[in-house]
Amino acid sequence: MENCIFCKIVNGEIPSDRVYEDEYVISIKDIKPEAPIHVLIMPKKHINSINDVKEEDLQIISHIFKVAQKIAKQLGVAESGYRIITNCGKDGGQTVEHLHFHLLGGKSLPISIG
Ligand code: AMP
Ligand code: ZN
């Protein structure tokens, strides 16, 4: 996908601090962390948002949650706890239109949602 910043990160055109990579998924440190641990987990395949997940993408989505489990362990927050968020669209606060899941932890996160 041209001009997608996360596709450029996936293919190495833009540098990133990678914490995990496999055939389907990468995870990078968020450039503007909002918690001591703040990484993004995304499919290598360009999917705009959770709205655009198709039947054939469901395996990747479940794989992402398995990867999240591994990363949480790797980054030392599996026991202390963490939060996984995906923002969708304008009201959801999505700023990058390539599906990604924030994994946040390393402190007690605020409970407020809206
Ligand atoms: P969202 O607002 O849910 O679309 O999240 C986009 C996230 O991507 C934000 O938390 C940004 O800080 C993060 N971000 C934007 N550009 C980069 C980049 N080049 N490397 C790492 N994280 C980025
Ligand atoms: Zn993309």
Architecture overview:
There is one protein chain. Strand 1 (18-21) and strand 2 (25-29) form a beta hairpin. The mean pLDDT is 97. The protein has 114 residues and is of the alpha+beta class. Strands 1-2-3-5-4 form a five-stranded antiparallel β-sheet, with helices on one face. The N and C termini lie far apart (31 Å). It has one domain (5-105): HIT-like (HIT family, subunit A), CATH 3.30.428.10. The protein has helices spanning 5-10, 58-74, 89-92, and strands at 18-21, 25-29, 37-43, 82-85, 101-105. Bound molecules: adenosine monophosphate (AMP) and zinc ion (ZN). Zinc ion binds at residues 1, 4, 6-7, 46, 98.
Query: End-to-end span in angstroms?
Result: 31 Å
Number of helices: 3
- Structurally, the number of domains stands at 1
**Helix-strand makeup class:** alpha+beta
The largest sheet is:
5 strands, antiparallel
- Regions with pLDDT < 50 over 5+ consecutive residues? none
Short recap of the structure:
This protein is an alpha+beta fold and 114 residues long.
Task: Name the features.
5-stranded antiparallel beta sheet, alpha+beta, 3 helices, HIT family, subunit A, globular, 114 residues, binds adenosine monophosphate, binds zinc ion, 22% strand
Task: Annotate the secondary structure layout.
Blueprint: H1 5-10, E1 18-21, E2 25-29, E3 37-43, H2 58-74, E4 82-85, H3 89-92, E5 101-105
Antiparallel strand pairs: 1-2, 2-3, 3-5, 4-5
Bound molecules: adenosine monophosphate (AMP) and zinc ion (ZN).
